[in-house]
Design brief:
334 residues, alpha/beta, Rossmann fold, 2 domains, seven-stranded parallel beta sheet
Length: 334
């Protein structure tokens, strides 16, 4: 099988490439290197340094591919309120470009990696796939729009599709010098430098975190299982539901670091309680996470220690700067 992975230099995409290569498949991938590291790309990947929005390039490099995984995304939920043009271009336009190029190349199945941001603020948790989506920000709106484009075009033109909803994935290879996302990696990078974590609001927002290999095991099966065609499937645990304060405390304990967080004004539109039910993945795919939160955080710590801590790179311009823009970004506090 010839598998195409967008965002193959990124965190999720590179691990997925490893998994398919280990099974003897061919892997082709592209990345614009905005959100990943070039050395994440496995050696045997046919790599193209292209942006997904380059439609003609996508048509060319997708030739002969059987399955497409769209992992590439400007996965900046909070930032999307202040850089909506950048985020929307790299979510909606990129998705439509890749979907269209896949159909033009007679790809058998397209797997879109969406986001729990599609659910927004709901009356109850955990979020289930049958809930009416209520995205709160341009990122979530863009992901939901991409789902609609895929469903429409794939149905019209006869391409199989699956919408995967991985959420709060953590582990080695995550971009840890990015000040706009990846809370666990940001905290580890800061604490290893002897700096205190910075927390938005009161820190009582609650999340579940999923170790990358637990997600990869399920994502890989979406390429071939008949039971997932046309389905939306949450991928990630629904236990170990922790606050951001608790997350900082756990990392501090693992590092033997005395945590005294710096609290800053909360980000607008941030969802207070967000976790997804894994019941559908359990029922269809026998999903069962094997790596605990502590084990996942330990893996991140070992990875960053091995590579070395890094200063944070403010690599995306703020398009809207006003009194609502977080001071962490305006004043480069990380």
């Amino acid at each position: 099988m010839r598998v195409f992975i967008s965002g193959v230099a990124g965190f999720l995409g590179s691990h997925l490439a490893d998994a398919f290569l280990a099974d003897g498949h061919e892997v082709v991938g592209c990345d614009n290197l905005t959100g990943g590291y070039l050395d994440n790309v496995p050696r045997d990947v046919e790599f193209h340094h292209y942006d997904c929005t380059y439609y003609n390039s996508m048509v060319k490099i997708l030739k002969g591919c059987d399955v497409v995984y769209h992992c590439a995304a400007a996965a900046y939920e909070g930032l999307s309120v202040f850089s909506p043009y950048f985020v929307t271009k790299n979510i909606v336009q990129a998705s439509v470009s890749l979907i269209t190029a896949s159909i033009a190349n007679n790809v058998r199945r397209f797997i879109l990696c969406s986001s729990m941001a599609r659910y927004g603020e709901q009356e109850t948790t955990p979020f289930t796939e049958d809930m009416t989506p209520r995205p709160q920000d341009p990122y979530g709106i863009g992901k939901l729009s991409s789902e609609s484009f895929l469903r429409n075009l794939a149905t019209i033109h006869g391409m199989e599709y699956v919408i995967a909803v991985p959420h709060n994935v953590i582990g080695p290879r995550q971009k840890y010098d990015d000040p706009y996302r990846n809370v666990a990696s940001i905290m580890v990078n800061l604490m290893l430098q002897g700096r205190q974590p910075i927390i938005y609001g009161d820190g009582n927002q609650k999340r579940c975190f999923s170790f990358v290999q637990d997600d990869i095991d399920i994502l890989k099966r979406l390429a071939t299982e008949d039971c997932v065609r046309g389905e939306i499937i949450n991928i990630g645990p629904d236990d170990e539901f922790v606050t951001i304060n608790e997350l900082a405390g756990i990392i501090g304990e693992l590092l033997d670091f005395d945590v005294n967080p710096l609290y800053v004004t909360g980000r607008p539109t941030e969802v207070r309680l967000a976790n997804c039910s894994a019941d559908k993945a359990r029922r269809l795919l026998d999903y069962e996470p094997k790596v605990s939160l502590n084990e996942g955080l330990t893996a991140i710590i070992e990875y960053i220690r091995h590579r070395g801590t890094r200063p944070f790179k403010y690599h995306i311009d703020l398009e809207i700067i006003n009194e609502k823009t977080p001071e962490t970004w305006k004043n480069r506090l990380f």
